[in-house]
Amino acid sequence: MITQRLSLGFLLGVLLVGLMSNTVTAATLEVTGPAGAMISLNNRPLGTFPLDGPLDLPPGSYTIHVQRPGNEPYENTIRLMSITDWQRVTVRLIPFSRRVAWSGNLLLAGLGQHYLGHSFRGYVYNAAEVGGLLTALAAELQRSNLKSDYLKLADLYNSSINAEEIVQLGNAADAKYNDMHDMADLRDTGLMVAGGAIAISIIDALLSFPKVEAGGGAVPVQTSQLDTSWQNNNTDHALHASLRLAF
């Protein structure tokens, strides 16, 4: 009897220890996404998909950030309320749009590059267009003022009867005329720089998209029509490849 009680007590102790060891001490977050995409949690890199398994985390707010070349960045904030909370997040990335990338540069050169994540090139194109337009505007204002001065000098030149004064007025009018044309050239250069920034940024955005993709390719949908004898015969093999051209 004593032996049975000891055995029963021992079993109860083992069971209690097992229950205590299995006690939930953290909330669970399971994140899945496209293979190869980089994931970070609260700005802490976790690696790439697929992850090794669910994440055990203390309750709180967590921001999931996922990036993969050719896709828009993904960001989502979730909240784990308690240690018994279990949440699953499936990340679906949206591919960059070629149309959005190049057409954005029509509004302002470089917007397409910012959209694609090429911020440095985007700022370069921003500066080129804005700088060119500001230069053109300043040059046009100065040209307008010089033209007004030139017309006044021309009127004085035409109405003057003093030979020495005529020479001075003529020289002054010629100088204003030359300055006016210099400002016109500077205005045109500024407009060319701005227009060139738009054109080059559009070409750059289009070239940011791959034209040829090769690899294993997608598995055919109608798999029932395929010969699956290779599954039971190690001597047979199958190969599936694809090549896609995008323009």
Question: What would you note in describing this structure?
Answer:
By secondary structure, the chain is of the alpha+beta class. It has two domains: 66 residues, Sandwich (Immunoglobulin-like); 109 residues. It is 49% helix and 19% strand. The longest helix has 45 residues. It is rod-shaped and about 105 Å long. The N terminus is likely disordered.
Keywords:
247 residues, alpha+beta, Immunoglobulin-like, 2 domains, four-stranded antiparallel sheet, three-stranded mixed sheet, rod-shaped
Extended strand count:
9
Number of domains: 2
Distinct helical segment count: 5
The global form is rod-shaped
Percent range of helical residues: 40-55%
For this entry, what is the oligomeric state of its chains?
single chain
Strand proportion, as a percent range, falls in 15-25%
Strand order of the largest sheet: 3-2-5-6
Largest sheet: 4 strands, antiparallel
- The average pLDDT value, as a whole number, equals 81
Radius of gyration: 36 Å
The SSE string, one letter per element, is: HEEEEEEEHHHHEE
Instruction: Identify low-pLDDT runs.
Output: 1-6, 14-21, 215-237
Give the N-terminus to C-terminus distance in angstroms.
Answer: 86 Å
SS class: alpha+beta
